[in-house]
Amino acid sequence: MGLPGSTRVQQEFVRAVNERLRLEPRDGERKMIPWSGSGSGSGSGRSITKLKCSLVGIGALLMLLLAGCQSPVTESGGGEESSVGEGRSPLETVNLRMQAYNDHDLDVFLSTYAEDVEIFTYPDRSLGKGKKRIKNLFEEMFQEASLRVDIHHQIAKDSYVINHETVVSGDETTEYVSIYEVRKGRIQSVRFVRD
Q1: Per-residue pLDDT for 35 more than 90?
Q2: What confidence tier does 37 reach under pLDDT thresholds 50, 70, 90?
Q3: Do 184 and 75 touch, CB atoms closer than 8 A?
Q4: Are strands 172-183 and 148-157 parallel, antiparallel or unpaired?
Q5: Which CATH architecture best describes the domain 84-193?
Q6: What is the pTM of this model?
Q7: Domain residue ranges in the chain
Q8: Distance from CA of residue 143 to its chain's centroid?
Q9: Which residue has better confidence, 84 or 115?
Q10: How many CB atoms lie within 10 A of CB 76?
Q11: How many Å apart are CA 161 and CA 167, to the nearest integer?
Q12: 3-state SS of 9-54?
């Protein structure tokens, strides 16, 4: 069931993700999942088979991330930034980010990121690099009173946190799968998966 060279732990993790997202059809039937967001009307749906195909890349990325998590990462350097968030776990760091997002607290929000953070639209389309870019992306958004993020599911594994989340801004609702890489209590990279 896994990729060549994948470990049993990685295979179990992928199986758990599939079960969590209920991607496996039961009794050979074809499952339909309602789909919200831009596109056709409110009664539209996509087949689970099509959804599985769009998630193949996410599964491959998860396997790569997990493969990279097998050996410990050592970081050098010092200074204030490397010690401020060190006491936080990756999950605590991401949840602090989410709370600051909902509170529209830009200072706390930015404190969860590394100075050289990289932001991508999955898999590798860069949205920017560095805290200054993050500030430019979110400063204006935080002025919107109705802006909030709701977390539906979270998976934490070593230095990675994967969220299934919905962002609400005014009348717009967008679903994401967000993959956060956290080292020493700071978000090093984020990959947003969206249609």
Answers
A1: no
A2: very low
A3: yes
A4: unpaired
A5: Roll (3.10)
A6: 0.59
A7: 8-68, 84-193
A8: 23
A9: 115
A10: 5
A11: 17
A12: HHHHHHHHHHHHCCCCCCCCCCCEEECCCCCCCCCCEEEHHHHHHH
